[in-house]
Amino acid sequence: MQIILMGAPGAGKGTQAAFLVERYKIPQISTGDMFRAAVKNGTALGLEAKTYMASGKLVPDTVTIGIVRERLAEGDCKAGFILDGFPRTVEQADALNKILDEQGKKISCVLNISVPSEYLIERAVGRRVCKSCGATYHVKFNPPKVANTCDNCGSDLYQRTDDTASTMQNRLAAYESSTRPLIDYYKKMGVYSEIDGRQTIAKVTEDLINVLTSVKD
Ligand code: AP5
Ligand code: MG
Ligand code: ZN
């Protein structure tokens, strides 16, 4: 299955991708996670991405499309994948169609986790992420059992540098201008579904799985 998880910053893409990976045994491909790993490792890609990410702007399409093209060519994507945070522009969506065409695949389903903007700043500012395994928590909505400690692996949690109220304004603006148009784009392709992301994490997962079980692959 080729799944695209769409949604504004903080909508719950990463949280839900973790459940879908477990259930469908296909990899999560998060461009945000790939860029953060590159920044951490100090690679050329990381140096380029860092300035855009720090201010909440989108990394240029040519760079982003290049890393996704390479990633989708890897063996673990053969049986499918969950794209999290890609595509985010019409140019990226066009490029993805082309890549999948070349691979003889098609998009099975675009799942948009829809959350109004008034929820999103609180979600981002309260997010905490595990330094080792990447598990995502929220200080209020999904707290770890022991404060600042990962339930899965016991490592410390950290706060993403772009999870501030001011950077979130730019991230939300980038979403509105560049990514929201993809809703109509995928509606026209006939692969679009919307899930109410204001619900609890467990209910959102349930709704996503309900849609996916009805998808013909
Ligand atoms: P990226 O890492 O993709 O960030 P994002 O899209 O802003 O999304 P987030 O990761 O912030 O949110 P999420 O939807 O995954 O939410 P989560 O599940 O963590 O991108 C970062 C940057 O990289 C971009 O700004 C850009 O610069 C660059 N970039 C990445 N991809 C790019 C691309 N394709 N093109 C160009 N540039 C790109 O949940 C958030 C919080 O809410 C958590 O604390 C969670 O516990 C909590 N939560 C989740 N669900 C619920 C719920 N149902 N109820 C209550 N709380 C919830
Ligand atoms: Mg994420
Ligand atoms: Zn962990």
Describe the structure.
This protein has 217 residues and is of the alpha/beta class. The protein has two domains: 2-116 and 165-213, 3-Layer(aba) Sandwich (Rossmann fold), CATH 3.40.50; 127-162, no CATH class. Helix content is 49%, strand content 15%. It has nine helices and eight strands. The chain has helices spanning 13-24, 31-41, 44-55, 61-72, 90-103, 117-125, 165-179, 181-189, 201-213, and strands spanning 2-6, 28-30, 81-84, 109-114, 127-130, 136-138, 157-158, 192-196. The chain has a five-stranded parallel β-sheet, sandwiched between helices. A three-stranded antiparallel β-sheet has the order 6-5-7. It is globular, with a radius of gyration of 17 Å. The chain starts with a strand and ends with a helix. Magnesium ion (MG) is lined by residues 13-14, 30, 32, 85.
Unreliable stretches: none
Structural class: alpha/beta
Q: Which series of helices and strands comes N to C?
A: EHEHHHEHEHEEEHHEH
Which value, in Å, is the CA radius of gyration?
17 Å
Write down the overall mean pLDDT.
97
For this structure, what is the CATH class of the largest domain? Answer: Alpha Beta
CATH H level of the largest domain: which superfamily? Answer: P-loop containing nucleotide triphosphate hydrolases
Short recap of the structure:
By secondary structure, the protein is an alpha/beta fold. The protein has helices at 13-24, 31-41, 44-55, 61-72, 90-103, 117-125, 165-179, 181-189, 201-213; strands at residues 2-6, 28-30, 81-84, 109-114, 127-130, 136-138, 157-158, 192-196. The protein folds into two domains: 2-116 and 165-213, P-loop containing nucleotide triphosphate hydrolases (Rossmann fold, 3-Layer(aba) Sandwich); 127-162, no CATH class.
